[in-house]
Amino acid sequence: MKNLMTTRPVSNGRTPCTREVNALSRSGISVGPVPYRSSLRVGVDSMWYNPSDPEDLKKLNRRDAGATEEVGMMLEPLGVGYGRRTGILAVVFSRTRRPCWVSNMARKTVLIVLCVFVLYSAAMIPSAAADVGTGPDAFSERTEERKEMVRSQFRGIGRTTITDKAVLDSMLRVPRHSFVPAKYRAFAYRDSPMPIGYGQTISQPYIVALMTQALELKPGMKVLEIGTGSGYQAAVLAEITDRVYTIEIIKGLYVSASERLSHLGYSSVHTKLGDGYHGWKEHAPFDRIIVTAAALHVPPPLFEQLKPGGKMVIPVGGQFETQRLLLVKRDDEGRRTSETLTLVRFVPLLRDAPGD
C-alpha cells in the first residue's frame, strides 16, 4: 500500500486511531493526520462517497462491512489517505467523538454493564428509613471499637480525664456509627468530629464525654439539649436520665434524628423543631442544659430556664475566633458564675425560623 501519511503534525489535526487505520487498510486506504476542516468526501477503492448522503452511507456500509463503524457512520474529519489500487484521496469522517475502539458489540456490552451497575448501586443505596439507624442490633456491633475509643481517647496530655462511670458506660453503649452518614461509618470511632450534612457535625467522642461529665447528670434529672444534630449527644444523655429534651433548627436533621432515636429505642427523648436560643418554656425549668453549637454569648432565655443550682455547658465565641467551652452555674439566688473548661471549635448556633 502506498502511504501518504505526513511526517509532521498538521495544524488542528489529529492522528486517527489504530482501529480506524486497520479498517481502512482492508479497503486499500492508508490514513494520516489532516486538518480539522477538510473535504466532505470519502473514497474507497474506485468509488467516492458523500458521508452526508444517507444513500451513500448505506452503499459504503454494504461495500465494506468491516469498516462500517469506522467509515460508514463518520462525519467528523479524522484523517486522510491514498488508495493503493486507485490513487484516490480519501478523507475519514466521524459523526461523534466516541473512542474509535468501541465497536457495536463493545458499546452494547458497556451499556449492559452500566445498567447492571446502576441497578446494583440503587439497590445498595440505603433508603431514608434504613439510614436513620440500624435498630437494636446496633448496640452489639463494633463494641471493641467503643472500648478502644474510651480507653485511648478519654485521657492524655491536655485533656481532662473522663472518670464519671455513668458517662463511660454511656459512651460504651451508644452505637456512634448509627449516628453518622453511611459513607463515614467506617470512621465513626476516630478521635475527630464527623460531618452529618447541612454544614453541621457530630462532635468528637472526647468532647461529647467531656461536656456530659461536666453536667454531673444524675438519673431523673431533666436536661435540655440545644442542637440535636444527628441525635448522638441526646442518646448519650438518655443512657443516664430518661428526661431528655432536645431542639433542632434544621428540619432535615430534626426529622432524621427523631426517626433514628426512635429506631434505636430512645423513646424517652423528646424532640422539637425550632430556634434553640429561646429554649423550651413548656418544659422548663431544667436541671441541666447543654448547647452543642457556639453562641456569641450565653442566651438569657436559656439561663432563665435553668433551675436554681442548675448547670449549663455551652461553647461561646465567634465562628472565626477561639471559642471557650463554659460551665455556667446558677445559684439559689439566681446569680450566674462561669468557668472555662477548655478551648473548642464548634459550628455556630443558628437562629431565626426553622429551615430545611
Describe the model.
The strands form four sheets. Strands 10-9-8-11-12-13-14 form a seven-stranded mixed β-sheet. The longest helix is centred in the N-terminal third of the chain and has 21 residues, at 104-124. Helix 9 links the parallel strand 9 and strand 10. The protein starts with 17 loop residues before the first helix and ends in a 12-residue tail after the last strand. It is globular. The chain has helices at 18-25, 54-63, 68-72, 104-124, 143-153, 165-173, 205-215, 232-238, 251-263, 300-304; strands at 29-32, 42-44, 47-49, 79-83, 89-92, 194-197, 200-202, 222-226, 243-248, 269-273, 286-291, 306-316, 323-330, 336-344. It is an alpha/beta fold. The protein folds into two domains: 1-125, no CATH class; 130-344, Vaccinia Virus protein VP39 (Rossmann fold), CATH 3.40.50.150. Helix 5 (143-153) packs antiparallel against helix 6.
Series of H and E elements: HEEEHHEEHHHEEHEHEHEEHEEE
Unreliable residue runs: 1-17, 29-46, 63-102, 121-133
Strand proportion: 15-25%
**Mean pLDDT score:** 77
Q: What summary fits the major beta sheet? A: 7 strands, mixed
Give a quick rundown of the structure.
With 356 residues, the protein is α/β, with parallel strands linked by helices. It contains 10 helices and 14 strands.
Task: Looking at this protein, list some descriptive labels.
356 residues, alpha/beta, Rossmann fold, seven-stranded mixed β-sheet, three-stranded antiparallel β-sheet, 10 helices, 28% helix, globular, disordered N terminus
